[in-house]
Amino acid sequence: MRRPSRAVIWRRRAVALLVLLAVVALVAWGITAAVRALGSGSAPQAAPSPTSTAPVDPGPCAPEDLGVDVVPSVGATGATVSFAVTLTNDGKAACLADAGRSSLALTVRSGTDRVWASDDCPAEPSSRPLLLDVGDTAEAAVTWNGRRSAAGCPSGQGSSGPGSYRVEASVDGEQVPGSGTSFSIG
After folding, report:
1. What is the pLDDT of residue 61?
2. Which has the closest alpha carbon to 171: 99, 116, 89?
3. DSSP code for 134
4. Beta strand 129-132 with 95-98: parallel, antiparallel or unpaired?
5. Is the per-residue pLDDT at 21 higher than 80?
6. Integer Cα distance of 134 and 95 in angstroms
7. pLDDT range class, residue 88, cuts 50, 70, 90
8. Which residues lie across from 130 on neighbouring strands?
9. Taking the CB of residue 102, how many other CB atoms lie within 10 A of it?
10. Structure pTM?
11. Number of other residues whose CB lies within 10 A of the CB of residue 165
12. Half-sphere exposure of 68 (CA within 13 A, CB side)
C-alpha cells in the first residue's frame, strides 16, 4: 500500500481545519442567537418621551361639550323675568365658555311665535370668557323686561301677554339641545 504524499496530507489537514472552524462558527452563532432570543423578553424598554408640564391654553368650549340649564324666575304679566343660566363643561378638557351677550343667547317663544331674544338688543358685557375645567359650572343671569323684540332692536314691539312660554339657549348661534324650559306668565 502506498503512502499518501505530503501534499495530500496537508490538503486533508486543511480541509479538516476548515470543517472544524465552520463547526465552531456555527456553534458560536447558535449560542449567540439563543442568548438574544432568551434576552429579548427582558430587553430594557425605551424610555417614554417626556411630557410637557407647561400649561396649555384652553380653547373655546365646543357647543356639544357645553351643558346649559336655564331656570326662569317669573313676575307679574309684563314684568321682568330673570333667567338663571348655568353653564357646565361636559367635555373631556378644560375650555373657555363665553357667557357674554354676543355668544350666549336666550330665545323666548310662545308656540311658534318668537317673542324675544337676548341677542336682538344685546346688553353688556358682550364678551365674558369663563374658564371651565371638566365638570365645572358657571352662573350667568339674563333679564327679559317682558317686551317683545326683533333683530336690530326696533321700537314699538309691544309687551308680551299672559300665557305659556318656552325659553331656549344657544351658544355662538347653535341651539343647545336640552336647554329648553317652559314657564307661564300671568
Report:
1. 87
2. 99
3. T
4. antiparallel
5. no
6. 8
7. very high
8. 97
9. 13
10. 0.66
11. 22
12. 31
Output the DSSP codes for 48-115. PPPPP-S-----BPPGGGEEEEEEEE--STTS-EEEEEEEEE-SSS-EEEE-STTTEEEEEEETTEEE
Query: Which cell goes with 143?
Result: 333679564
Asked whether the CA dihedral 11, 16, 17, 23 is positive or negative, the reply is: positive
Q: Collapsing DSSP states into helix, strand and coil, what is residue 153?
A: coil
Chain mean pLDDT for the chain: 83
| Neighbouring residues of 61: CB distance < 8 A, sequence distance ≥ 6 | 89, 91, 95, 96, 97, 132, 171
Give the β-pairing of 137-144 and 81-89: antiparallel
Q: Is the pLDDT of residue 132 over 80?
A: yes
Reported as a single tens digit per residue, the pLDDT across 139-177 is 989 989 889 999 888 888 888 888 899 999 988 888 888
Residue 129's closest CA among 70, 172, 92, 174?
Answer: 172
88 and 135 in contact (C-beta within 8 Å)? yes
Neighbours of 106 (CB within 10 A): 24
Using DSSP's 3-state secondary structure scheme, residue 25 falls into helix
DSSP 124: S
* Residue type (1 letter), 8: V
pLDDT, mean of residues 72-79: 73
Give the whole-angstrom CA distance, residue 93 versus residue 44. 34
Q: Which residues contact 74 (CB under 8 A, 6 or more apart)?
A: 81, 183, 184, 185
Which H or E run includes 8?
Answer: helix 6-39
